[in-house]
User: Fold this.
Amino acid sequence: MTNSVAEIKDADAIFITGSNTTESHPVIGAKVKQAIKRGAKLVVADPREIELAKYADVFLQIKPGTSLALNNALAHVILEEGLEDRDYIESTTEDFEKFAIKVKEYTPEKAAEICGVSPEDIRKAARIYAEAGKASILYCMGITQHHNGTETVMSLSNLALMTGNIGKENAGINPLRGQNNVQGACDMGALPNVLTGYQPVANPQVIEKFEKAWGVKLNNKPGITIPEAMHGAEHGDIKVLYVFGENPMVSDPDTNHVKKALEKTFLIVQDLFLTETAELADVVLPAAAFAEKDGTFVNTERRVQRVRKAVDAPGEAKADWLIFMELMNVLGYSKKYKNAEEIFNEIREVTPQYVGISYARIEEVGIQWPCPTEEHPGTKFLHVGKPARGAGLFMAVDFAPSSEMNKADYPLTLTTGRNLYQYHTTTMTGKTDAINKKAGECYIEISPSLAANLKVEDGEMVKVISPRGEIKTKARVTDIVADNVVFIPFHYADGANVLTNGEELDKYVKIPGLKVTGVKIEKLA
Amino acid sequence: MINLKINGFEVQVEEGTTILQAASKVGVKIPTFCHDPRLVPHGTCRICVVEVEGGRNLPTACTTPVYEGMNIQTESKEVVQTRREILDLVLANHPLDCLTCEKSGRCTLQDLCYQYDIKETTYVGERKDFEVDESNPFYYNDQNKCILCGKCVYVCSQLQGTEAIGFAERGFPTHIATPFNQGLEQSTCVSCGNCVSVCPVGALMPKSKEKFRYWETKTVRTTCSYCGVGCQMDLVVKDDKVVGVDPAMGASNEGLLCVKGKFAYNFVNHPSRLTTPLVRKDGKLVETSWDEAYEVIANKINETKETVGADAIAAFSSARALTEDNYLMQKLMRAVVGTNNIDHCARL
Ligand code: SF4
Ligand code: SF4
Ligand code: SF4
Assistant:
């Protein structure tokens, strides 16, 4: 997030897109409602009529995968009606002209056609966003998990730039991080192309710095992403795969392909439970849960916060960092750490954004990076004055539909997401009986008219088929989805990801297009 | 700035400060049932009354702003008398089953009755007799214990924004319920438990699997392990077991949690946790020692490095694990194994 969670409640307008906030980030959802009570205007764009749609001044029920066209049309209206922030554009941005020419093509009428909404609603939404003093954009996987996810994010950042909603309080462009420590994992360089603090592997100075810090020679060839590694494993190029605290058998697209890949490689799994993935492993290592170890998580607003040990880990289970350290030692690297704090202090030495953060400083309240010195209070919102790269770059981007759309044999569009009760692959939440009482099994949301066409009643089992596979699941008849759109939460094994496409990746960051899958449904006899 | 006196102490506070806030600034504790700093003050319970020199009646400290020269007594004879009357009246309608009540040890009513020496009520007459609403799987609502402080209703409407519960009926039968009394399970309640966390008595209570007394527990401040909001919470621990979760006033959550953070903690002490390393032998996963597990992994890594190269090895790190865990995993892969093939599920 460019801004902080607590700032949301004082925004003048909020544009929520591709985020079912009240279910996926419930406490942020509560802040949005607090903002509405204070008089903030709300625009929601989502394929489903999510809870916050009921609170929205404008709700745009777009077809899955069409956000980019919508965002370009919003920009079109803003320019057409002269609602842009000329001063900000002139003083702090680049490439505005190219962008302005591009969005000229995206009339509300054209976008309305692509997205399946009314042009007048697009105009209204654009006015609400652009006329607000402080407008905040909240988005999530509904924006990023597409074949054109990166470009869709660019189309959102264009909106923030053209209205000067960057670098000020209560505004910004705010991706909501789905997992407790995605931010921390990214910050730590658990990514194939960057080391900690986003220092590129391809930069020789960075490599030199880390070679010195760690006392070893380093490989300077950027690594491969999860989808590429899966592919590699399936084709015999990846011989050893070490999966730590993940359950790709449920969370990754195209389960059948994932299974083949995992069976072929030497698989190490480190987890709390014998997950669907661990069952396929050659070695399984028992890990400690969050309540059993000291350390930090970094939340979606870049705040480094303490995690504290409350109970002992069961049996011989160990803190993950201890397992990695011992394995390093066995492999001949003799560095030892006494505790997580020692590791954190090493992180500070090599990560510019973290230099000023120490366990002592975050004992009571976490600190938001960047925090360059011990005197620095941390950074509540980013890009003050000028965006971090020097100038905000407008990106002229074009809409292209996913290859999963408009397939004659698979006429329905499946989209996926979370429900309120379960978390990710249910490995943790599914251990609480009351959670399972509320949301214990997979289901598919289908509209009443689709249900009528298929002669399916609420609660009946249906077969859902895509080119990758088929599943049987329960129909939940609801008008929150449009007639040709269906929704399956991705939490459950042998569920949504049996159907999704693991091959169509975003060309920049290799995110699979999980949010759009062509499917068909059959009633079970 | 405004100058005033509380129990004889000189205090200086900003204009608009309430008596309650001014008192807490100098460490004078005024009891409350219905107060919550995040809510619009409403003065419903009246237990926070204080005496102001020259005033005709006793104002509630939570709603009354201070003025220049104010002279306040928070435990005067008259104040104590009034508080005892309020407690007497509350007890007229409260079961005295502290022996078995799960809230015991953490109940504001119990604490104040002890402080003001109220053993039982002097009133006789009709008693509340509500059926306990057990329909929600996470918590129950026992209105026989409710003292009508209103906190749950206002937290649900003002902070959580769900408006699932409200005051039902007027006068004696007033109670907290969902619209049309259809029960929590049929209501719009999202089981966030934020009402449960603020209830000062044993009316809204988590359905805990464990039996415990609060004095047997300790709390440990930590960060929620589910979504990226990073809510701050206190784990309630008894005998090496997590038995409950309370919200803490963190920067992002400001005292709120959702159903996952509040109630989905049973995985921690779950019997199906992995407790030893396992290796595959003859097609089956069997228990092994750490030493053997490390050896099997190290041999495989070394062999692969020698025969095909380090780039034939890849690792997926975890967005659910510690920052420190993630750092060491990428260091293991880069500095020791020798590849940049490390990624995690940010994309999934
Ligand atoms: S659990 Fe949450 S939603 Fe339900 S009544 Fe309580 S505060 Fe309201
Ligand atoms: S249920 Fe608890 S919080 Fe709600 S009004 Fe009664 S005593 Fe107060
Ligand atoms: S309590 Fe809920 S909203 Fe808060 S971090 Fe945990 S999962 Fe997210």
